[in-house]
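Hi R.,

As promised on Friday, here is the backbone we talked about, encoded as structure tokens. Could you run it through your design pipeline when you get a chance and send me back a sequence?
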């Protein structure tokens, strides 16, 4: 493994380091992301680097007891292991994440040839309302902050300008939505948010891929 790394060019070493840091930070890599300038999905540099050196990355993470997997159908490379800790997200971000997973699954069941899904902020808030998990519609500032956070972790990609956020704002939901949720039933998890005595300010979101097809 060390010999393989030493034979790489300096540029390749830097690319490999970047991939390792990204996987540790967010546990997955997307094959394609939406490029607003091009107006379409574009292949990512990190994913190409990982597939090029896939066996090296598998051996590297194996030393730490972490498994690296590739889901070609979804276009996601991800890592799994007991050593990986889930992130803590604000309550609204957690609710949106669970709702986005429901919307993603529902749209994928309608026979989509794409691995990503497009929805709207209005649809997300509407679905949250169905489960009575929001006392009232969040403020524009809170929604904008939440969307920006989920964008940061590459869960979604807003297709419209965040400064003009409204119910019609379109959101691309990436297939990595599968990698950031507990394996429990999503509807049951949402139901717990409607019980105010059980709601905290934060909820842990733990990486898992129990719902993902191999």
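Update: got your reply. Pasting your designed sequence below so it's all in one thread:
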């Amino acid at each position: 493994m060390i010999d393989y790394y030493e034979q790489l060019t300096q540029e390749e070493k830097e690319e490999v380091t970047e991939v390792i840091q990204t996987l540790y930070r967010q546990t997955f890599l997307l094959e394609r992301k939406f490029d607003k300038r091009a107006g379409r999905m574009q292949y990512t540099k990190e994913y190409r680097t990982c597939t090029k050196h896939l066996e090296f990355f598998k051996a590297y993470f194996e030393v730490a007891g972490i498994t690296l997997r590739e889901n070609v159908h979804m276009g996601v490379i991800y890592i799994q292991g007991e050593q990986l800790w889930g992130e803590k997200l604000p309550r609204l971000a957690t609710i949106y994440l669970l709702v986005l997973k429901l919307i993603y699954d529902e749209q994928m069941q309608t026979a989509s040839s794409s691995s990503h899904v497009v929805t709207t902020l209005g649809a997300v808030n509407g679905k949250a309302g169905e489960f009575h998990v929001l006392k009232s519609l969040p403020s524009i500032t809170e929604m904008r902050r939440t969307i920006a956070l989920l964008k940061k972790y590459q869960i979604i990609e807003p297709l419209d300008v965040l400064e003009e956020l409204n119910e019609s704002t379109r959101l691309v939901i990436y297939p990595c939505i599968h990698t950031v949720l507990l394996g429990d039933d999503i509807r049951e998890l949402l139901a717990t948010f409607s019980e105010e005595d059980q709601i905290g300010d934060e909820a842990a979101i733990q990486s898992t891929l129990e719902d993902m097809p191999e």
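One thing I noticed while checking it: The chain has a mean pLDDT of 83.

Thanks again,
M.
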